[in-house]
């Protein structure tokens, strides 16, 4: 995501770019497609509303003429207030645009030597190859961290039991785009007991488990207590079963994963269960008795550097300011943050090449706040996505949360209009 955005931002400014991509010569344990910007986890880029930090960051990216957000807007699929995309259509369009750009030379091989005397953006993502990881470690020293991430299963629409599931959006926000699998207390109890006792895939002996809270495997969430899932991915709040007119004990939601609505992913069901166990346990969910899983969930090692000690505010390396980092390898968590850091790294590299002032956005913006978070030194550093907790607070006190967040977003957009005057096309 970050690499695709960065390459295109530089290319459209007239810079000749060598884009290294090791696929299809070599794949990570979870990548399957030859295309760029492959969406490994969810197909959702989060909320589009200005009352959410993710929505604000996407609006800021539209202001800066983001390549990937523009494509996401063009291939979006129904997802209520969220910006979800046709997974394959998104990657295919990104790939086509990059391949057609005369300023981008695509080199399909694993980069195993980082140039020290040239301008470089390392945007290898959280699934950085072992070979490149070693070279990055040599470059930055031992300040190199990791955590584990998990992916949710995808299944086919036609395999669902339509007599048990129903379409609805939580609190009726949207047009009922989500498929809901209702569960009674008895059905939930059976599912829960099987889930917490199911077999998981063991980690490698030499690797210590570090799990990122936002992508915690569903079985690990369940292990914290029988009712934990009822306040997480299986919460029934805001959903009324049209067959009963009542709220169910628990609900599993499915979100559309492709443009034609033939594929759906299980919301919040990242997992490290063995594949056979996934089929057995998840088939206990009402409506999924005969579900056809086209992709099972997997858990993989995600890698990120200790950016708080290593990076300048313009995302360049403190020890070599010709080398920039962007994307989730910096600890900027999620698709939208990856796009944002890719865009900013490219603009700052371009400005530095042309002896112009680099851009360091203030923390009143979502993009500025995420860069500040990953570059401010702190004792404990964990990946972070866009949220209002890291954005500078308003001077005035607004009690209503939605109105407060809306005001924070409007402040950011007003700032961008005043300072940059839409000159990024």
UniProtKB/TrEMBL annotation:
Keywords: Cytoplasm, FAD, Flavoprotein, Methyltransferase, NAD, NADP, Transferase, tRNA processing
Keyword GTP-binding: no
MF term (GO), any: tRNA (uracil(54)-C5)-methyltransferase activity, 5,10-methylenetetrahydrofolate-dependent
Domain MnmG N-terminal: 2-357
Swiss-Prot/TrEMBL cofactor(s): FAD
Annotated EC: 2.1.1.74
Predominant location category: cytoplasm
Coiled-coil residue windows: none
GO biological processes: tRNA methylation; tRNA wobble uridine modification
Superkingdom, natural source: Bacteria
Entry GO terms, CC: cytosol
Keyword Glycosyltransferase: no
UniProt function note: Catalyzes the folate-dependent formation of 5-methyl-uridine at position 54 (M-5-U54) in all tRNAs.
Name of the protein in its database record: Methylenetetrahydrofolate--tRNA-(uracil-5-)-methyltransferase TrmFO
Organism for this UniProt entry: Haliovirga abyssi
